[in-house]
Amino acid sequence: MKKRIEIRERKVEYTLRVSKRARRMRLAIYCDGNFVVTAPQGIDLNMVERFIVGKSRWIINKLDYFKSFGNKIFTKTNKADFLKYRQQAQLFSESRIQFFNKLYQFKFNKVNIKNQKTRWGSCSKKENLNFNYKIVLLPQHIADYIIVHELCHLVEFNHSRKFWNFVQKLVPNYLEIRKELKRYDNRKF
C-alpha cells in the first residue's frame, strides 16, 4: 500500500509491504526511485514511521543518488524478455566461460540461464554455473566480471582472500567493476 511521510522537510512516498515471513523491518530504495518498506505482519504503523524517520539521512541520500542517474541505465524487463534473451545469454556465457577458463581449466557441469530476481549469477555445490539472462544486457566488462566471479567459486566456495586472488588474475580491476555493478539493480534492470 502506498504511503506518504515527511522526512527532513521532504515529502517522500513509499510502499509498505507486510510480510508473514519478515522478522524485522527492511528498507529498500530502487534505482527507479521506488522506496519500499517491508515489515512483519502485525506491526504498528507508528513504529514503521519512527523507523523511517530514524533512517531518514540514509533514505534521502539514496533517493538523491538514484535520482542523479536519471533513467539512463535501468529498464524493466518481463517474461517475454527472458524468452527473447535466454538463448543469446546462453551463447554469450558459454563463450566467455571458455575464454576465461583457459587459464584455470576449472571443471563444471552445466551452464544455466535463469530469470533470477536478485542475483546476476551463482555457482552451486553441484558445480553448475547459473547466470541471469540479463547478463547479456550489461556492458561486457561487467558481464565478464560476473562470469569470472562464478568460475572462481568452483574452487573457492566463499569470498576469502584466496577467492579474490583467483578473480584478480583474470580481472585485475575487479574492485572498480564491483562498484560499478552496484548501479545495476537486477530487480529493476
Question: What brief labels describe this structure?
Answer:
189 residues; Zincin-like; 2 domains; 4-stranded mixed sheet; 3-stranded mixed sheet
Account of the 3D structure:
- The protein has 189 residues and is α/β, with parallel strands linked by helices.
- The chain folds into 2 domains: 2-67, no CATH class; 79-181, 2-Layer Sandwich (Zincin-like), CATH 3.30.2010.
- Helix content is 42%, strand content 20%.
- The strands form 2 sheets. A 4-stranded mixed sheet has the order 1-2-4-3.
- The longest helix has 26 residues, at 79-104.
- The radius of gyration is 19 Å and the shape is elongated.
- The two termini are 23 Å apart.
Query: Would you state the CATH class of the largest domain?
Result: Alpha Beta
Span between N and C termini? 23 Å
CATH fold-level label of the largest domain: Zincin-like
- Categorize the overall geometry: elongated
Classification by helices and strands: alpha/beta
